[in-house]
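Entry 14. Ran structure prediction on the chain below.
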Amino acid sequence: MKVLVTGGAGFIGSWLVDSLISAGNAVTVLDNLSPQIHGSVPRLDATWSDREAGVEFIRADVRDKDALDAALTSCDAVVHLAAETGTGQSMYRVSHYYDVNQQATAALLELIATKHSHVRRVVLASSRSVYGEGAYRLEDKIVVPGSRDPNRLKAGLFEPTDEHGNSLTLIPTPESATPQPSSIYAATKLANETLGRVMAEAYGTTVVALRFQNVYGERQSLKNPYTGILSIFSNRMRQNLPINIFEDGKESRDFVHVSDVVKAIALALEAELPSYTTINVGSGVPTSVLDVAAELRTCLDSQSEFQITGDFRAGDIRHCYADGARARSLLGFSPKVSLRDGLEAFSRWVETQAIPEDRSAQAQSEMASLGLGKISA
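Output, C-alpha cells:
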C-alpha cells in the first residue's frame, strides 16, 4: 500500500512509519514538527529520515488543506495521528484544540470524499478519554458516571459515584459503553469518530477509530509538559527531584507500549472490518499512578521522593481500562509487552536523552490560575 500518516514524525507516528516501511509499504508523512513536542528548534528525528526508503516527508500543518490535498495523491489508506493531545491544556485552549483536532479532520475527510475516492481506508487515532470515567458495575447494571464534582475532589473524595452517591465497582470498559467526555480534548476525539462514521456510511470508505489507552515508550516527547506523566516523572527522577502524585495516587490508567499500538494500527489497515467500527487498544490492565511511579523509579535507580498532595486537574479521570475482546475478535490483536519490560526499555532510552527544562509546574499553574484544579505551590 501507499499510506499517508499525518503526525508521522511524532511519537506513535515515527514507530508506525518504521513498521510500514519494513512491511514494504510506501509512506507519505505530513507533520509540522510542533515546537511543543519537538523543541524550540524542531528537527526531524526519526530512523527513516536518513534512509532512501520510499518515505515522502511534507512539513506542513494538518490544517493546511492544500498540503493535505497533495499528500493524499495516490494514497490507498490514511492513518490520522496528527492532533493536539494535552487533556489539561485543552480545557483553556478550546478553540485551538477544536481547530487542530476537529476542523482538520473534517477537512481531511472532505478531501477524501470529494477528490480522493481512491483512499479506501482511514484509521482515526481516537482515545480512551471519550469514555470519561469509563465503565463500572452497580448491582446488575453497567454505568458510566459523569464528570467528578470539583467540590468532592477538593474534599479528597476522589472515587466516582452514581447520581445518588452509591459506590461503584470498576470493570473493563467495552466499546459499547456510553461516551461521557470530561475534557475538550476528549470531546474533539468523539466528534471525529462521529464524522468518520457518517463518512463511512455515506461514501463506502472503511473507517476504523482506534481508542488508544495511555500510550508510552521510547521516542515519546520529553519536552511537552502538557501530556505524558511518564515523561514528566522520568525528567524529574533523573535529577532526584520530588514527584507530585496527584489525588491519592490510587487513580489508575491502562498503560500500553507503543510497539503494541503500532501492531494494532497495522492490523487495522489490513483486516476485514465493518464499514465503521471503534476498537479499544490497551493492555487491559489497570495500574495505579503510584505503582507505575514506583516501578519507573526503580528502573531509573532514582532517589526521588513521592509527595501525595491531593492535587487534581479538571478533565482528569479516576480510572479506565480497556476491554480487549473486540480487538481480539476483529483484529486478532493482543498486547505483548508487559509493563515492567516496557518501562525498562523506556528507561534505557530516556537515559540516552538530554534532560529538558522541566516546565510541568508552569503547565499546572496555568490550569490552577483559571480555577481548573488544585495545584500545590
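The chain has a mean pLDDT of 92. Will compare against last week's run tomorrow.
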